[in-house]
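Lab notebook, bench 4. Still working through the backlog of constructs that have no structural model yet. Next entry is a single chain of 199 residues. Request: give me the structure tokens for it.
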Amino acid sequence: MTAGTDMGGGRRPPLWRMISWAALGLMLLAPLFAMQFTAEVAWGVLDFALMGALLGGVGLGIELTVRKTSSAAYRTAAAIALAAAFLLVWINAAVGMIGSEQEDANLLYGGVLAVGLAGAVIARFRPDGLAWAMAATAFAQAMVLVIAPLLGASSRALVWSPEVLMLTGFFAAMWLLSAWLFRQAAATARAGSQGRAST
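Model written out:
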């Protein structure tokens, strides 16, 4: 019996897969562990269900990306986009980006994610289209600062506070970095196809 098989004769999952899912599981268990030592963390069943769904979505996204391509740039771009989406939902659900989590303006960030997801589907997850989708997502992230005060959901001072501006810049940078990496993946794929065509 080889090292690559389990007791049932099948192949063991790759090490990266076991480590990734174990890390996501530990992230889900971290609040449960913290609840044993502090009253500051008081999660209910719904909180764990939401976090489990988010982490499961990230894990599934990573699995699909790894199966789709061997391009390091594409994989890294997808990982950054998934991390940005996860953090955006997590921050808004926990404390809110604008004011508290009760602030209606935070619902606009759902639109940011919708732009990214719709762009990815329209692009059929091809790297050149994903580059545009991530750039559009960065633009949508910045536009929240403009739209929220116009809707009367928040005061301009609250929306344009240093914390919100810093977080907006952070997320916009993540989306743009993802866009740049997708563009690199697209350029590499084009170069590879041209090389094959010339032979």
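Notes after review: Helices lie at 15-35, 45-68, 72-94, 108-122, 127-150, 156-159, 162-198. The chain has two domains: 12-68, 73-187. Flag for follow-up if needed.
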